[in-house]
Amino acid sequence: MKRNLYLTTTPIDEAREIYMNALGDDLRPRAETIRVTDALGRVTSEAIYAKYSSPLYNSAAMDGIAVVSSRTEWASEASPVLLKPDEDYLAVDTGDPIRKPYDAVIMAEDLQEVPEGVLIHAPAPAWQHVRPIGEDIIAGEMILTRCHRIRPIDIGVLLSGGVTEIPVYAQPRVGIIPTGTEIVEPYENPKEGDIIESNSRMFEAMVRENGGLPVRYDIVPDDYEAIKASVLKALEENDVVLVNAGSSAGREDFTVHILREIGEVFIHGVAIKPGKPVILARACGKPVIGIPGYPVSAYLAVENFVYPVLRSLTGLRASQSTTIQAVLSRRLVSSLKHREYVRVRVGRVGGRYVCAPLARGAGAAMSMVRADGFCVIPQEKEGYEAGETVDVVLFRSAEEVDRTIVCTGSHDLLLDVISDLMSGEPEGVRLSSTHVGSLGGLMALQRGEAHISPTHLLDEETGIYNESYIRTLFPGQEMVLVKGVRRIQGLMVAKGNPLGIRGVEDLTRVRFVNRQRGAGTRVLLDYKLKQAGISPDDVDGYEAEAATHMAVAAQVASGEADCGMGVYSAAHAMGLDFLPVGDEEYDFAMRPETLDLPEVKCFLRLLGSDAFRAKLEELGGYSLEGSGEIR
Amino acid sequence: MKRNLYLTTTPIDEAREIYMNALGDDLRPRAETIRVTDALGRVTSEAIYAKYSSPLYNSAAMDGIAVVSSRTEWASEASPVLLKPDEDYLAVDTGDPIRKPYDAVIMAEDLQEVPEGVLIHAPAPAWQHVRPIGEDIIAGEMILTRCHRIRPIDIGVLLSGGVTEIPVYAQPRVGIIPTGTEIVEPYENPKEGDIIESNSRMFEAMVRENGGLPVRYDIVPDDYEAIKASVLKALEENDVVLVNAGSSAGREDFTVHILREIGEVFIHGVAIKPGKPVILARACGKPVIGIPGYPVSAYLAVENFVYPVLRSLTGLRASQSTTIQAVLSRRLVSSLKHREYVRVRVGRVGGRYVCAPLARGAGAAMSMVRADGFCVIPQEKEGYEAGETVDVVLFRSAEEVDRTIVCTGSHDLLLDVISDLMSGEPEGVRLSSTHVGSLGGLMALQRGEAHISPTHLLDEETGIYNESYIRTLFPGQEMVLVKGVRRIQGLMVAKGNPLGIRGVEDLTRVRFVNRQRGAGTRVLLDYKLKQAGISPDDVDGYEAEAATHMAVAAQVASGEADCGMGVYSAAHAMGLDFLPVGDEEYDFAMRPETLDLPEVKCFLRLLGSDAFRAKLEELGGYSLEGSGEIR
């Protein structure tokens, strides 16, 4: 099988329009009649009219007595009127019918009970506290229009209006076929070369959230006939079929050839990043969409091409995402070849929204989990400069973003611990941390793009942490430094220390993995190398950069590197041996006014909590003396 | 059984606080472990950590060949380097492992195939197009915090990280007990005195939407022992129990006495309107909430008291509703005795939000269906003046409200028809119509509170409809009048016309039902009465007002009135006989700039559509000549 080297790159809106037009009448939704009690979240396929009025009859709106209004005309405080049971009134409860000659209700609270009956002190005008027939719903009136998604209140009103069954759009069945010889079910124990199949499970959930019924098929290996057979079967059993992956131009990317054989391919390749290798096709009169394998590409392909197809079949309208204007923290370069979706974290700092780009790779699914939204770079733009105001399409509500602490700076596992504890608090506040190293964090704080900067920068001359850096970066400004933790830094080596590394002095004879420029840990390494009289040029891997303690630990654990520097807790978590190099102070820098934010108050409260202390003891390598103190 | 005359009226926030504090540890959520593939929408009960890294190994990020970077160093356009298969490179597809000695990937597109192998024209630096182990997810890192509601992308990442099962909060079981001798299941044919039981079905849906598992019990008649037995059974089988209704102070309102016997009642009566008779109690260590019977009261009681209990048990956080500022179209008076929730329709007219109050009765469930939000009048406020800016808590997104046409004025069934057709259009636009009569509509247009005003006002002197009114109300301003329909007005009488009514001249001897002041139909009636020389004082029921044609028809159909004036379509829909009185012109007034709005373009397009014409023919009594013409 040849590679399909030449994907087209149709602009995304054009591709969608071509496809939706090509599908045309294939996208006619089916209707079915279901019970109202099963209808939550379903979508009406036609207008619904009330069968009965509600109330069905004139009825008491209050607990009390039903009276004939004309007989109460002369009642007053000065001369109350006596009404006798059965003769002059009937006791009624809310909802009871009011039949002639009765035409008004007096509330129980306004009655004075006497042996012969009740005394009233005011007249009851006709229709007082009586709900006329049809006051709420009139038989024959339209209760709901077509294309209306059923809410709880609709269920109540439909039943009150005598409607027990309604026509709704049938949920389209969406067949999902995972393909690939190298992919394995999540339930097995993966080995090198295996890729855990997770996309189809994400698609199931995406289809379900958008009103479809997902039908997942078994994994099909990269075999032309096997994939073709599975696609044909799925076409028979479903309204829409998704094939994942094999939509690109690899040697074993059969999908496009199969779809050309059994149907018609309208688009192969869309100018979108991530997500280019999309196939938009039709076979057996049904839409078939080939979806790329990288999770972020897959997500965007479903959102951009499968959702519109589902909307046509379900009657659901696009839910409008909230778009906000945010200041970009870092330059973003993009190509004119595609529209690019860059995942960003967003927060509101000092009255304006700021956004920080996350990992851009198509494979960085975790960055989708962390992201608060997308910054979409149009195809005709080459990118944005740092400090520019850009549009961000939010995944969360703006209110949620408003209650987020933006924490930018040095990485430590304790940030995850606080973030977890914070999520458990009833306030609904969040911690959003971006790891750019201590110096990068302080610079973000300076630019007004962060609430808090975790930092552990050693002043080589004084041996004091953090303070001198803050004084230099924020001259003449009052700043707050909240004491965090003392933590042990050291060298992480494989279990059992097979290379017999003793300390920094041995770094000249092993493969090292370093942290990025500006990271406090790198500053510490440089200091230690200088003390030991070693030049960075003599350290193999000094230029290899990892962004977090855990990333360093992972490199060592996998054998890619023999040694890296980082905190004890990361080495401990990855089962590595650890050679302590020294203690350091990991603190939180912020502006004084930040202390007043309720989110930050919650942060500080948790920093001093027993739950936090207990969790840090479990992680190991921390000392919490004076933690939470404000300097 | 005595009435419970003396409900307290605890302020709403205080009542909630007392109750939540009293429940305290009873509200500890349970956790359970479920499969990730079943976890959509569930909420994590603790932080989730990755089990494996992703990728699991260094892998190809592109389709192409794996090479040893050092052997490509000298390649250039001028002197390409030849690489031989197996010896110098391995063909790889995206995701394939890159094992030593290979350390870089060259994309298929950059290769020139020759008989002996491939030529490359540029060096491949180490790690080019290679995804290092853990690039996306690092084993041991936190993927999700606790209290996180699982989204599709989370499912993908959890599985990629080797996590197949997760701990989540168990869905609390909520027992729902409908009580009342007069209530019947929706599936039976109701007769006078029956009330269709619909609240429990609404509760089921509300509980489901908020992460609980509803368990509905059979209707229990108003019998102390029967209700007690049902409550005790429900307490045994559920985490929370809701009793509806019997929470008020009627003769047969047993709930509070039962709960005092078997448990503890903390609050009976809350200062909220609608919704005062709420019971907040505990029995068998579980929350029991007595909910009032009126649907709007019931809805508000669930929202204000059951949702907080559910949030404690599910780990879900309150979703923040959007609150906007809107100009109030009508004065709202409220009492200092309670916080009042007034349902309003909201639209954006000329750059500002305007809101119009809907029916305020606790029984007006249909107004909840029609509403776009609540205007909440705080307990310490006596109300708001027309024109004041108030806070509105929206039920819809602000974007949806922005795409709504505000149509205020005279009522006709054709507005429902257009609204239905509009909902079927892909644009997602909505028509929100409020019925205040023709004159009221033109005045709303004048105040900038409506986009469109449907009007049919007869100038008695000229016999011409609408134009002179607009000239008078909008002196010197350019206005647009879009021709709507000609429709037949007449007298609606019971089937077979048992009283032998012949025309307006007979209105002195029957019970009439009129339309509200300012309604065009009322203007027409007055004109016809004057022509016939009849004084309004001689018409029994001239002061009885109904707000729509359908409401008039319902009064006649129920026998409450013998005769009313309205359009043919309403009489037809309610199965009444109809005595035509005359044709009239029902048109749409608007400002010229309104014609440019996309929503209004959609409205006008539909006005001229075949679907609209067909539907109006079905309703009967309309002529569509010139419909959609702009004057």
Description:
- Two copies of one chain form a homodimer.
- With 631 residues, chain A is an alpha/beta fold.
- Among the domains of chain A are: 12-28 and 171-314, MoaB/Mog-like domain (Molybdenum Cofactor Biosythetic Enzyme, Chain A), CATH 3.40.980.10; 32-48 and 142-168, Molybdopterin biosynthesis moea protein, domain 2; 59-131, Beta Complex (Molybdopterin biosynthesis moeA protein, domain 3), CATH 2.170.190.11; 480-623, D-Maltodextrin-Binding Protein, domain 2.
- Helices cover 26% and strands 27% of the residues of chain A.
- The first copy, chain A, has 16 helices and 37 strands.
- In chain A, strands 31, 32, 33, 34, 35, 36 and 37 form a seven-stranded mixed beta sheet that branches. A six-stranded mixed beta sheet of chain A has the order 16-13-17-21-20-18, sandwiched between helices.
- The first copy, chain A, is flat and about 110 Å long.
- Chains A and B meet through β11, α2, β15, α3 and α7 of A and β11, α2, β15, α3 and α7 of B.
The share of residues in helices of chain A is 25-40%
Low-confidence stretches of chain A: 1-5
Largest sheet of chain A: 7 strands, mixed
Indicate the radius of gyration of chain A in whole angstroms: 34 Å
Q: Any idea what the CATH architecture of the domain at 12-28 and 171-314 in chain A is?
A: 3-Layer(aba) Sandwich
Distance between the termini of chain A: 68 Å
Strand content of chain A: 25-35%
Provide the structure class of chain A. alpha/beta
Average pLDDT over all residues of chain A = 90
**What is the fourth-level CATH superfamily of the domain at 12-28 and 171-314 in chain A?**
MoaB/Mog-like domain
Regarding quaternary structure, what we see is homodimer
**Individual helix count of chain A:** 16
- The CATH class label of the domain at 12-28 and 171-314 in chain A is Alpha Beta
CATH fold-level topology of the domain at 12-28 and 171-314 in chain A: Molybdenum Cofactor Biosythetic Enzyme, Chain A
Largest interface: A-B, 120 and 121 residues
The tally of beta strands of chain A, per DSSP, is 37
- The geometry of chain A reads as flat
